Structure formats: C-alpha cells, structure tokens
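JOB MANIFEST
job_type = single_chain_structure
chain_count = 1
residues = 139
[input]
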Amino acid sequence: MPSPLHAAGLLLLTGPAISADGSTLDATGSVIQMLLGLGLVIGLLYATLHILRRIGGGNTQAGAMLKILGAAAVGPRERVVLVEVADRILVLGVAPGRVNTLHTLDVGDIPRDPDGGRPLSGGKDFQTWLKQTLERRSR
C-alpha cells in the first residue's frame, strides 16, 4: 500500500528540482547519470577481475606442484580427492572445514591412459579402483 511519503518521493524524483541560484535542475537526468556512472564502475571492476583471473592471480609455481587427479563424492558435502604432490599421490577426505589424509600412494600405483598422460578417471571406475587399491594396501 503506497504511503503519501512514497508518492512525495516519486514526485521529487520525476519533477524538476530548483537549485540554490534559482535555476531548475532535471532530477531524472541526474539519477540516470548517477546510474550510468555506477554501471561504469561495476563494469570496470568486473573487467579487472576477469583480467586477473586470466593472468593467473599470482603464484603459479605452487599450482604446478599440485595436481588434482580425480575426485568422487561420498556424501552431499564430502568427497575423496586424489592429489599428486611431487612423486606421491595423496588420497584425501574432504569435508566442510576439514581435510584428512586417508592414504598415500606412489605415482606408479595409479593407472595412466595409453599416452602416458592423465590418470584414467570416471565415476564408477575411480570408485572401484580406489576400493581395490585400499584392499590391496591393507593386506
């Protein structure tokens, strides 16, 4: 339900305003100019953020040492993640606010694709492989 205060505010925004020297100002033009300026500032911030993301945002050497090889969800907010660090592969349990090392493997223990590149991955295959590997290691 509109109140008289809202209606008065709309009249002030749409009608001409009078400056201190007696000349009229167009309030609508001022509001449009302010919104365009705000849009320009937000656009510049967005462009700067995009450029920083493309550059890499800083330390690229730390990213070269860590590689995420695969992940599998084991709950709504819990995951098992394979992370390669130097010549070791860590099997990590990741939950909100917590990361635990579940197991440590050698790089040679992970099956790779025929080209020798990335490890073989894929939903059920990763889960089956993880289960078999943990059963082998526990013997």
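[summary]
The first helix runs from residue 4 to 14.
The mean pLDDT is 76.
exit_status = 0
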